[in-house]
Amino acid sequence: MKKIMILSVGLLCSCAYFNTFYNAQNYYRQGMKLVVNDTLKVDSEFFDKTIEKATAVIVKYPDSRYVDDALFMMGASYYYKGDYSRALEKLDFLCLNYPGSKFYDDALYYKGLAYYKQRKYGPAIIALQEAAGSKHYRIKAMIALSYVYFQQKDYASLAETIQKLLKERLDTKEKRWLLQLMGDAQYAQKLYTDALATFNELLSLVRLPEEQKKLKLKIAEIYLQMGEFSRCKDFLEGEHNPEFRSILGDLYTKLGNIKEAKEIYLEVAISTLNPDFAAQAFYKLAELYRNEDSLETAIAYYDSSMNRSVTGTYGVKAKKMADILRRLNTLTSETEKPDRSQFLLAEIYFVDLGEPEKAVVEYEKVYTDFPESKWAPKALYAHFWIARNIFKNDSLADLTASRILSRYPGSTYALSVKKVLEKKNGEELDE
């Protein structure tokens, strides 16, 4: 009777043990159904329950032959939950204490992914390189390594790894990932001819319209970077998407065909349903009119840009530019203190608009038209400073310096010029 009771207790313990492990395994499998490309797409309780049951296996049955199974499921579950530190803790323990486990290579692979997520690229490379030595993880680990090398900007190792992978039997999705990485790396290195070939090859493998659009936009951008304006124009002519039309407008701007560029930007701004994109098109249109000094028209288009997207990037920039141009208009029509207005006009061109060429023209009007004004020496000094520090034109700088010293010898600006010239002469003597 006693033997029967002991046997019964043993059977009960065994059943409880197997049930706990089975439940952990079942929850893990359910959780993995929600994983796509090593990423959990929809949050769920399956991995929480996996951790709970796997912990029970380890705590209650530490001598079980399934401890390494439980450790791996815990580590992978923590990884998918985004708790990379705990994932590494469990996976490290598995690798250290169960080197013969059938989950050893799995643990190495997930360690590499967890380190990558933590941006610890050195340890990630070590783990993934070791995982790549296994038959099962060779391709996956090398693909993950490619992403690590890209983030590290180790383009030489990236190219070498991708070239090896492209000789393997890859599915279309894997090949697309690698070509995208390689194209982005080539573009980052300004290897535009190579990048163009890579993105065109990738384009032939892509079927979704949105992905095709992104690639075509990238190809158009590369043509522009290469200065291949005619090829870019031919590439974009048949495209009707507003984003493609906007790039075509940029292209016409570069080619100096402003009339065509204006028509395209206006067409895009009116036709697109995307408020941010409409704001961008109106902003570009306003910039063209501002460059022509058609300030009223420019202000109107800046206002249109702002109205399309008040808090968007271009809406905010448009409001700032419209305010600046309104100040310009006000100063241009100012009659009470024309010398002051003229100086402030030059300041706006230089400080607010970042246009030193136009600024010096306006500064020159101050000290030429109003030589007795208190603003004259200040304007002449501003001209000197721009000539010396921005234009790097020593002849012009010396000319404006001479004018300051001769016309306004007792001014603070003449004193400042003297100090600059003394420092310059001292440096030349030292050399």
Automatic annotation (TrEMBL):
It comes from the Bacteria. The keyword Cell cycle does not apply. SMART domains: TPR. InterPro entries: TPR-like_helical_dom_sf (IPR011990), TPR_rpt (IPR019734). The keyword Signal applies. Keywords: Signal. It holds the Pfam family TPR_16. Residues 1-24 form the signal peptide. This is Tetratricopeptide repeat protein. It comes from candidate division WOR-3 bacterium.
